[in-house]
Design a protein that fits this description.
The complex is a heterodimer of chains A (292) and B (858). Chain A is of the alpha+beta class. Helix content of chain A is 22%, strand content 41%. Chain A has two domains: 105 residues, Immunoglobulin-like, CATH 2.60.40.2250; 178 residues, C8orf32 fold (Roll), CATH 3.10.620. In chain A, the strands form three sheets. In chain A, strands 1, 2, 3, 4, 5, 13 and 14 form a seven-stranded antiparallel beta sheet that branches. Helix content of chain B is 46%, strand content 12%. Chain B contains 31 helices and 19 strands. In chain B, β7 and β8 form a beta hairpin. The chains are: A alpha+beta (292), B alpha+beta (858).
Chain lengths: 292, 858
Amino acid sequence: MKFRVTHTTEYGYSQPVALCRNEACLLPRDTVWQQCLRSELQVDPVPADFRERSDFFGNRISHFAVQYPHEKLRVTALNEVVVSPDPQLLTAANQFPWDMVQKQLASERNPKVFSALPFLYDSPLARWSAELEAYARVSFPAGRPLGEATAELMTRIYTDFTYEPGVTTVTTPLVEVMETRRGVCQDFAHLGVACLRSLGLAARYVSGYIETLPPPGQERLVGADASHAWFSVFAPTLGWIDFDPTNNKSLGEQHITVAWGRDFSDVSPLKGVALGGGKHKVKVSVDVARIV
Amino acid sequence: MKIENGQFQKQHQGASSQSFATRLSAEDELGAAAGTLRPDEQKLLQTLDKLGTKRLLKRHKEAQRLLRENGATYNDFDTMDTARAWQFDPIPLIIDTEQWSEIETGLVQRAELFNLILADIYGPQKLIEDGLLPPELIYAQSGFLWPCVGLLPAGERHLNLYSANLAKGKDGRFWVLEDHSQPPFGSGYALENRIVMTRSFPRLYQDFQVHRLAMYYRVLADRLTQLARNKQAEPRIVVLTPGPENPHYFEHAYLASYLGFPLVQGADLIVRDGCAWLKTVGGLRQVDVILNRLADDLCDPLELREDSLLGVTGLLEAIRLGNVVTANAIGCNLIKNPALLAFLPALCRRLLGEELKLPSVATWWCGQPREREFVLRNLNRLIIKPIHPLAGLPEKLPGELSPVQLEEWRARINADPHLYVGQELSRLTRVPSFLGDKIEQRPCVFSTYLTATGQGYLAMSGGLSRIDESESRLLVSKSGGYSKDTWVLTGEPDKQVNLWRQAQPNQYIEASMGSLPSRAAENLFWAGRYAERSDATARLLRSILVQYREFSEFRDPDDRRNLEHLLRALTHVTLTYPGFVGEGAEKKLADPRNELMSLSSDVERPGSLRASLRGFGHSAYFVRDSLPVDAWRIVDNIQQNWNPRFSISYIGSGRLHDSIDRLLVQLSAFSGLNNDNMARETDWLFLKIGRSLERALNLIALLRATLVPYSKPSMEAQMFETVLATSNSLITYRRRYRSFMQLPMILELLLTDANYPRALAYQLKQLQRMVGELPQEPFADQANNTTGIKEFFADLSGTDLKPLIQLSGGGESYPLLEELLLEQKERLEKLSEKLMQLYFSPTLVRQRLGAIQQEQAS
């Protein structure tokens, strides 16, 4: 499947900003199942120090600054990607009992396992708690295949938690999400990540987009999409298998991957520091369009 | 110990003639926990004996005074908190040549080892992949900074400064307790202790051949110069500090001043075009090397901790591009993770192919099952430490844990074993220590400092020792206790080393002028303003005290009215409303003593004399390296002498009057020393501009409050005399105009005489000249350039005085005089704003974009 994704963020300030410096994580990485045909980051006003680099996790980070007074900043990412996930991956993951994978991670040291180690521990937005671990354990009895157990965890998050925008922010701690049982895709992805890590499994947070289809008979609204997030579990020899708890789906043709990290804080789409500016307003629009 | 204590006191009272040395050995024989005195310690104590208790106490007091004056003991003028005093023990720790060479070799090996570990962790991470380092010690440890992986090119040295804390075990061997890339007690403290030691106890120092410390700083300065990526002859090097609120700010300032590098804060630096720049009064100047004293994770709010207000946005990117270098590399402080100690021997064999020379304190990391069992079994006998700072930890003093605390530790360790280590609390060799009134044997920890050289590392031949009453206090609580100098003995006298560099023949070294950091300029400006404001307030207070005594004696109604007039003027001049003017004024005018006390000594009240003196002290402290050494001593004395515990009885008794007299002499001495000693460069200009501006504003306020309202003839003369006395002009006036007290003459002297240093016209002329001499670069960006600033100055010298003394219709004031004064006041205030805008750090608020108000995701 081929998509064109346009992601625009616009900051408006009540007073001029003298100087700002930013990092964007908006350009999709290439993966085994995804190829980036074209990607471009447009910044208005014209930026200085505009460079792209690769971070610790291999994501594409764009660094830029606006070094003269401005009252508006617009950042647009234009991407075209081809996605072709392997439908057999989940089944393949079932050949390993989860507790065997956990033991391998704890004791084996080889390049494959090594690459998963950074994703084994607490991270700023996905921290262990006894409640989380207890919640996770239900789906992971001894000897259960990894794929099956993780898929059940995903389904439970999907059914136990209510999708409700506006009740949480990126800094809402998971303990609170566990209590209110409400949140958005970021919270659900963090939940999955923290649950898996509480069992000694390696899990990562994935940021990206999902194609949304309009209800039958209606026109697709341009720019009404949003950025998306899900989680991914590690199986030695296979690699990473993705689960989308917000939609109760494993990685499909509608999922476009941008970046991954330990949690949101590693892959924040756009962050920056501005000098001055008074109050600011932010406007975001995302458009995921299928191209033939 | 107790016996010893009693003995010393006896001797102190002259009842015992036992020497220090024999008493300490006697303690040994009694089986107390003391080491045998070595020959050099014997010799040292003999010298102390010769000095005698009395002189020892005197010298010790002198040393404490020096430390205080230099700012080492506290940097807080508000509290004068003696608890924070840096207690000095004049008996140095002595390390002989042989033992030192062993330590030195071990330290250099350790620095090499940590550098290789850091290069691996911030590079390929083979040590984790090969199982030599447990991954949780890196990935789950807050000292490891993810964005710093790959920050430096391969092969670049990460660790340029290294510090280890050592202690001598009962077996006489030294071992390492802690490793640091940024020790809390930096090498500046060692330098300070040495300087105080040599000044207060010169005999002691001469009797031994002691290694000097200067070589270390020389090599450090050279190394920092080498680090500049573009290898220019004169790279710009700065010391980055969190600021005066940091308890170790003194040390940062001290080190910066000794090395001759500007001391800067994060807001003084800016990243533009991929480079780091210092904001100076002459515009932006590129910075090549940063000696960093800011916690690693606070260095860049864009890539590291977002809530950091102390860092420099974009610093990591500038480092990545190779345009600026920090020492140490950001992220190095992960070497203080105590769990690494358990893995060092194996890492040393792997990375250096040799055995670790200096052993570390025995450390058990709870991430391993057997070690965890051991720690849990011995909880109350070990020092339990987290691998990185954790909030809300229970009491840590081994042996003093209650069952509840033990249970709390057990629960914590079981929940997150990999976050904790247990360390052996072994008995240390004790060393003789002078504790203010007695000599005792105390356990001692010794901080060492190393700097990289072109090829390897060099250790400072000396260091900073700290003692405390017990091992557990010394190793766990880390505050309090005493510090001592550390002497490394040498076979032959050390050559004198200094920090002067040798120029090439015919090399012309460009004077580094015109690059005064904006923040320093701002503080100089305010030091000038506060000094002058204190002076003006003190003089007015003194005039009021005279008037108050006069009235109290003679009870003359005119005196009473005059006094009230002056009291109201005091409120207007110091802007301490309502005071004697607004609500409740009647009561205060009837008995002004409480309000006068508050205006003298209430530090929390803006406008009070003490608040202005505090402002003066703070600003001067910041720029102390721009001031003559003796000028700083005066600042310190002022803070010491202006006692906040004045009582109301001081007003009638004349004691407050006397204190003000002394204060005025000190303030004059401060300005006199600066006049005589400071080069007429930018620093001087800002200090003087602040002074002149404030003097002009104070004079305007005084004249508006005293002369603009009409006084009846019977009171006029008295009022005029007070105004002249307050502006220190009575003598000049008398000489010029003899005994005629007339308003026009007073105005001629105080308003329009451009050659009289107390006159308004003189201040304006001086300000105009000095502002004209300031660097002009900042004007380049400005639409309205120098011509704009000219508008702020009026020439008052030719002013016609006649209209000014025309009374208003009702006869109650002089409206044109008021108009003129008000106009001048407004111009001066605009000038002050303009200077701030052009030369000082702009106070733009930094805000974060993105992280918190994140777009809604699906």
